[in-house]
Every structure is written in C-alpha cells, then in structure tokens.
Design a protein that fits this description.
150 residues, alpha+beta, 12-stranded antiparallel β-sheet, 16% helix, elongated
C-alpha cells in the first residue's frame, strides 16, 4: 500500500496513512503542531507560548512543562516522571551551565571561534570572578559606597 497524505490550506500535513497506521494532525494559529493522534490510540498534545516556545508536551510516556527566559532560552523543564533540568545562559544566549535532577552538572565556555567546551566547576567560577573584576576595573570612578557594596 502506498502512503496517503492530506494538507490544509496552509500546507500543513493534517492526515497521513501508511500500510500500518493513520495519523491526524492539528495546528494552532502559528502553524505549531498541537495535536497528533494515531490509529493505534496514542496521542501527543503540545502547547506553545506567544513566542512559539514549546511550554507543554504530553505523550504516551510522560508530560513535560518547559519554562523560558526573556530571550526564549529554555531555563527549566519538569517531567511527570520526576526528572527535571535547568539551564543558564550568558549574555550572548549561549548555554553555560546545565544541571538535572539526577545530579549531573556541566559547565561550558566558548572559544573565539564559537566552539563549546566542557569545563570544571572551578574553572567556571574563575571565569565569573574574572568578569566581575573586569567590570569593576572598567569603571572610571566609583564612590566609596559602591566599593563597600562589592
């Protein structure tokens, strides 16, 4: 049997059939796939925020809730099975720290060519201290009150 495909007016696949299963797809107003139903009874539901970031996904295994920062970087994901992860980003929106609920933790730095490299927690802390020191030294003048706050 050959496959059958049907599309809506926006050219989104809304129906697919192969020799084993049939699939039905639904989309939101931004063309994000929000519902997938299979003839085997399995379904996937997805929700998105105003920036088209995936904020919720429920499938036959688990549910996920995702949170984003103001730059649309995923900063937290929590799954119904208890698994979670967190991400931190630098001012260029690059991942610099990853941590999950099973005690895995990674720190990253970037070379001038943009390549990402794993680093130790100690090296990460040293990079952060250097940034704070450089920012402080770059100030032309500061009051004694600012010095006391540092």
């Amino acid at each position: 049997m050959s496959e059958i495909k049907k599309y809506d007016k926006r050219n989104n696949l809304i129906y697919y059939k192969d020799s084993y299963y049939e699939y039905w797809y639904e989309y939101d107003e931004n063309n994000n796939k929000v519902h997938i139903k299979c003839s085997n009874g399995r379904e996937i539901e997805k929700r998105y925020d105003k920036n088209n970031n995936l904020t919720y996904k429920k499938d036959y295994f688990t549910e996920k809730i995702l949170e984003y920062d103001k730059n649309n970087n995923c900063i937290h994901c929590k799954e119904s099975n208890g698994y979670e992860y967190w991400n931190e980003y630098d001012e260029d929106n690059r991942s610099i720290h990853y941590k999950n609920s099973v005690n895995e933790e990674k720190w990253y730095k970037y070379y001038s060519d943009g390549k990402k490299c794993n680093i130790s927690k100690e090296e990460f802390k040293q990079i952060e201290r250097t940034k704070v020191k450089e920012e402080f030294l770059s100030r032309k003048k500061c009051s004694r009150f600012e010095i006391m706050d540092i």
